[in-house]
Amino acid sequence: MSTSQNILHAPSARSVRADDAVPSVLDVSNLRVVFEGDTRTVTAVDGVSFSVKKGRTLAIVGESGSGKSVTSLALMRLLPEHTARVSGNVNFDGRQLLTEPTSTMRSLRGNRLAMIFQEPMTSLNPSYTVGEQIKEVILRHRQMSKKEAAERTIAMLRLVRIPSPETRYHQYPHNLSGGMRQRVMIAMALACDPELLIADEPTTALDVTIQAQVLELMRELQQKTGTAIVLITHDLGVVAESCDDVIVMYAGQVVEQCSVEELFTFPQHPYTVGLLGSLPRLDEKRERLAAITGTVPDMANPPAGCRFQARCPFRINKCAEMPALMEVSQSHFSRCWRAPMEDLVP
Amino acid sequence: MTQAPSSASAVKPIIEVRGLGKNFVLKRSVFSRPLVQIRAVDNVTLSLMPGETLAIVGESGCGKSTLGRLLMRLIKPSTGEVFIDGQNVTNISHAEMRQQRRHVQLIFQDPYASLNPRMTIAQTIAEPLMLHNIVPAGQRAKRVAELLEMVGLRPEQANRYPHEFSGGQRQRVVIARALAPEPKAIICDEAVSALDVSIQAQILNLLKDLQNRLGLAFVFISHDLGVVKHIADRVAVMYLGKVVEIGASDEIFSAPRHPYTRALLSAIPVAAPPSHQRSRAARLHGDLPSPLSPPQGCRLHTRCPHARPECKTVSMKLDVEASGHANACAFWRDLPAQDGTEGVREPRNPKLEKLFVAFEAMAARSAQTVKGG
Ligand SMILES: Nc1ncnc2c1ncn2[C@@H]1O[C@H](COP(=O)(O)OP(=O)(O)OP(=O)(O)O)[C@@H](O)[C@H]1O
Ligand SMILES: Nc1ncnc2c1ncn2[C@@H]1O[C@H](COP(=O)(O)OP(=O)(O)OP(=O)(O)O)[C@@H](O)[C@H]1O
Ligand code: SF4
Ligand SMILES: [Mg+2]
Ligand SMILES: [Mg+2]
């Protein structure tokens, strides 16, 4: 048990060592989130470790329900305290986020730490205009007059490519299309030049042209301000185009961690192989997509051993034991007994 | 206009719309005269046949969701007519519409907003069964469990509330609810966008199976062109409230006519290593003009790489080819040829292809041993 715990910590420690010059903004180690229900206890995040460097973008991909959103909510301290038990370490620029007083968290959020939520409608207030809501955030964290804040709001709306920002300023969230609401969220998150931006599916409702523009915009801002970005997305095209490093989650654990280049060149975990294999291809048409069969395990009582075993075509007897996250090649980690996958192809 | 659906064959469209338009008033004068208006949907004519999947694609804010709502008469059009199952429903009452709605279901873009937080998942899915009295009360629980399994959720999750689910899980609940009343057509507004690709593949396979089995028709609103290419028979491309191109999916992807369609295809992000990314040169640059005051003439002329002076005044009438393929560029026949697939060819790593093959072969083998044993 203790050895596997050590190996579990290895990746973040090692990748920091790999290029020491770039300081990491966020260091998460051994994060656990347990939801205590009346009848069942769910371990939604089970020992997750990663770090994000200044000016870099880390992608988190993974099965629906694997704990991506819960991970990000936990480190922003936004989970309901009476049901969610959070443990581990989250170091942001020298602060331990999990133990900071609530008041400190409140002044960090929206300012140095920003988050774009998965569902824009749940985080925009339906009874205020979108302009007022962004202005409010700016006024809370910046020394500015109301007029200056309103101007900055319009500039931000223009930056995320909302046409006629002066008119849109005065509209309510329900008057906007889904993609516009998402861009309003992005404008709000970027309004105070955060050091760390956590974006949970920020472009899912956006069409490809605007998606490309918004991602380019986030990149530009990143180059200017050195913002570190954690991008949660299931769109592997987006990962390929705009991220540097990636972690793949499955059933509450990190199962693969590597650079984006490595992930698409040759993945090292069977879940990732299945994931890449089930992508609809643009240059061929298949009657059925190759889906990974079966469903995710019940996180109230996950199986002993590898959590992917029930669905894994490569499983062997050894898979009944839990594999650790092991380094397969230089800075490429996989939680699988059969790695390296090179051995599986003739 | 774009397709002549009913005359030749006996098969009638499930949904047919003619000259459809929708204006939203953003500002009124003190006498409540409209001052600022948006033409969210402008003069759209199309039809949906049984067993067919029609995709609607286009930039954010171009009117896709509004068109989806109009197609099922959830909102009233400002101009034009809507026929569902041959019946003109443009002006029918709310109560009559409710009956019709069993046949045309909508999966909303925002799954959270469309689930009642105080109802369990089971209650949510059972509601349409009850409302339309489809399954006798005694068998409802069993039907709910079946529907949950269909969308890849575990039946024991039935008694939980929406907030206990992840984004993708909630989306699947919404899909199960839409399938419950056994509709003839489903309008899927970004229905799989929130799902990761492996579940997306499961759901897309499921939708296809249901279509083959029950002759279900889908209107598939999506910005994910990979998904659209996989599932659609026909594709309608919208720009600023107007359909600029409509035709068979294969044609749209292999030989896009309209410059906007071409630009859209070239912007698709490809899941390949960064060192193998396509050039971004062909992408559409510049901002989407305000729909409050769309450009005169061809609405694309402010951003079109092939624009010429006449484009500021031409009409956007659809030019219909013999095949039924139609597009709204007045000069499309003069455009430089572009091989559509050229733009979207995905680089392959042969070693990785072998790994995919091994994965599928082993998966098929273990599926067989499970069945056999
Ligand atoms: N408040 C809660 N109470 C109980 N369980 C919860 C709660 N919030 C999330 N969960 C559970 O925790 C697990 C992880 O959820 P999470 O939202 O992090 O998934 P995700 O990886 O973001 O998925 P998706 O891609 O679908 O958004 C899920 O199984 C979910 O059902
Ligand atoms: N209830 C409303 N009141 C006022 N304007 C509206 C309303 N609903 C939609 N609109 C406007 O109509 C236009 C089209 O919106 P719609 O939601 O149809 O876009 P969409 O193509 O679905 O975009 P997305 O891809 O972002 O979801 C937008 O400019 C939007 O602001
Ligand atoms: S450890 Fe075994 S079951 Fe798990 S992914 Fe690897 S081969 Fe498959
Ligand atoms: Mg999520
Ligand atoms: Mg929409």
TrEMBL record, chain A:
Chief localisation class: membrane
Locations listed in the record: Cell inner membrane
Keyword field contains Plastid: no
GO molecular function, one term: ATP binding
Matching InterPro entries: AAA+_ATPase, ABC_Ni/Peptide_Import, ABC_transporter-like_ATP-bd, ABC_transporter-like_CS, Oligopep_ABC_C, P-loop_NTPase
Topology class, membrane: Peripheral membrane protein
GO CC list: plasma membrane
GO BP of this protein: peptide transport; transmembrane transport
Keywords: ATP-binding, Cell membrane, Membrane, Nucleotide-binding, Transport
Family indicated by similarity: Belongs to the ABC transporter superfamily.
The protein's name: ABC transporter ATP-binding protein
Source organism of the structure: Microvirga alba
Lineage, top ranks: Bacteria, Pseudomonadati, Pseudomonadota, Alphaproteobacteria, Hyphomicrobiales
From TrEMBL, chain B:
Annotated GO biological process: peptide transport; transmembrane transport
The keyword Lipoprotein is annotated on this UniProt entry: no
InterPro entries: AAA+_ATPase, ABC_transp_ATP-bind, ABC_transporter-like_ATP-bd, ABC_transporter-like_CS, Oligopep_ABC_C, P-loop_NTPase
ATP-binding keyword on record: yes
Membrane topology, as annotated: Peripheral membrane protein
Chief place where the protein resides: membrane
UniProt subcellular location: Cell inner membrane
CDD domains: ABC_NikE_OppD_transporters (cd03257)
Pfam families assigned: ABC_tran, oligo_HPY
MF GO annotations: ATP binding; ATP hydrolysis activity
Record-annotated ABC transporter domain positions: 25-265
Keyword vocabulary terms for this entry: ATP-binding, Nucleotide-binding, Transport
A Gene Ontology cellular-component term: plasma membrane
NCBIfam families on file: oligo_HPY, PRK11308.1
Family membership noted in the UniProt record: Belongs to the ABC transporter superfamily.
Protein name: Dipeptide ABC transporter ATP-binding protein
The species this protein was found in: Microvirga alba
